[in-house]
Prior knowledge:
This protein is α+β, with helices and mostly antiparallel strands and 121 residues long. The chain has three helices and six strands. Strands 4-3-2-1-6-5 form a six-stranded mixed beta sheet, with no helix packed on it.
Amino acid sequence: MVKIRASKLRDVELITDTGIRLGWVYDLSMDEETGDILVIVAEPDEDLDTSEFVTDHEGLLLIPVSAVKSIGEVIIIDSSKLAVKSKLRRLRTVKELVGTRKVEEPEPELDMDIDVEDEFE
Length: 121
């Protein structure tokens, strides 16, 4: 595994695998307990419509690290793993539907050994 200093990522450009320029790395968000990087916080490109992207209260993009495909001169983001609001709304709707749906308990199977020959003799 190649190690990269976080300071080297600052201001690196983020582009999706479909060619959309997202912006530039501003910061990283980490899990305090494990030290795992969870999210790349990015300054959005001025031409990017951020209305469909997950952003923080300052308007910075929040890009899950799991969406990173490669890191080099630029960071390539897998657009299918990019958290966008429409995906999150669909996911929330599905969870709500599943949460309100009554799950039927399967009927218990009767465990009876019946010898067919004994019954009809």
